[in-house]
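Task 17 of the worksheet. Students: predict the tertiary structure of the chain below and write it out as structure tokens. Keep your answer in the requested format; marks are given for formatting as well as content.
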Amino acid sequence: MSVLIIELGGSHMENVYTIVHLFYLKKQPVYFIANESLNNLIKEKEKISGIYLVPEKLNTAKEQLNVLRKIKSVVKEKNINTIIFGTTEIKPVRNILLLLPNVNLIGILHDALKLDSSPTFKYIYSLRLHKYIVFGNFIRNNLKKYPKKNLYPFFPVYFPKPAHNPLIKNPEEIWIAVPGVVKSERKDYIPLLKKILETKLPENIKLVFLGKADRDESEIKSLIEKINSIKKAVVTFDDYLEYDTFHNYLAKTDFILPLLKINEDFFYGNTRISGAFNLAYSYQLPLLLPTSYKKNTDLIDYSLYYETTNELYKLLQLISEKKVESSQIRKAYEVKDQFNFEEMADELTSFIHQP
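Model answer:
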């Protein structure tokens, strides 16, 4: 079996890392077509039998047809029998789908709700795509209309590790990472920072915002400046983080705080996830989450919960005083089989081969 992974969405390399690694374990050749902007994020190239770059912008029919020609060429030349789309629900994929070679097609869905509700998926995608990869068992089980046997529950938790980590961490410090672009639209940065400014963070707690601050987030920047003028408690970055820097900080992190909005009641809901979940799984770290996320049974063994910003602050205090019992979470990571790469490789291969 030869597999071609196609990522035309300009992001989501986290899924590619895991899929490439799983096929590498099975000693099956993998080829990769991706936007040019992703070139610097392609890691462990020795695991990929061939890499083909296409333009970032694929808005016109001509640009999309050029990609289609490239796909057909690779499929024919490398005897590809399976194509996996890294981002399925985008226009370039939709527009070329019906013209693709007659091979096994599988799509990764970032919002699985589309399978239950989207006319495009019902009337266009269904003509060629019948099997999908979704993010975890919880999402798979919550899709009511689509056959479960055609859904693979995927945990993209393999991240190539940087060769060297130059970061020095005070052994007394506890690092709590908030991954992602610093933007208040979907995260509770402002309520938490206001609380910290009012009451201060415990001395041994350091918040690490692993993302560039959006230029329009003046209130967030102002709050951080005021907090750090008293004590350097919040680590921030002016530019987008390089891959190695991002993962070097995660390697030293103690807890992951996605900082998802409390009052939007389960935004990621039943059909999509935050990328922070997979980072926690990968580094086997406890997650700090709003109680609404207790609904997600994939998360519950690895999470500590809070209902309000005040409760989150109290949780940080308990963590500071080492009164939070996280050993059970660490143990859960050790005993769970869902993050075993050998088993994941077997399951994915079986899913691909099933009729």
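Marker's comment: The chain is about 35% helix and 15% strand. The chain has a mean pLDDT of 94.
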